[in-house]
């Protein structure tokens, strides 16, 4: 999917970007954001792993 894909909306881009940044930082999803991310990506989401 590219950024011009019509299936991409703020509801899907924002949680994916949050997950990407958390993965790069090696952080877990804060409890404050869990509900938002679960609603938009589902509970089976995965963090992005950073190779060292």
Report what the structure shows.
With 52 residues, the protein is mostly helical. The protein contains two helices and no strands. It has helices at residues 10-25, 31-41. Helix 1 crosses helix 2 (31-41). The termini are far apart.
In short:
This protein has helices at residues 10-25, 31-41. With 52 residues, it is an all-alpha fold. The longest helix is centred in the middle third of the chain and has 16 residues, at 10-25.
Set down the secondary structure blueprint.
Elements: H1 10-25, H2 31-41
Helix pairs in contact: 1-2
Strand fraction equals under 5%
- Could you describe the largest sheet, including whether it forms a barrel? none
Give the helix/strand class: mainly alpha
Helix content: 40-55%
Could you list the spans in which at least 5 consecutive residues all have pLDDT below 50?
none
The number of helices is: 2
Roughly what is the average pLDDT, rounded to an integer?
78
Whole-Å distance between the termini?
26 Å
List the helices and strands in order.
Answer: HH
Q: State Rg.
A: 11 Å
Number of strands: 0
Shape: globular
């Amino acid at each position: 999917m590219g950024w011009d894909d019509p299936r991409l909306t703020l509801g899907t881009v924002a949680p994916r970007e949050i997950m990407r940044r958390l993965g790069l930082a090696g952080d877990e999803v804060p409890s404050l954001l869990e509900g938002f991310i679960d609603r938009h990506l589902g509970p089976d989401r995965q963090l992005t792993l950073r190779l060292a």
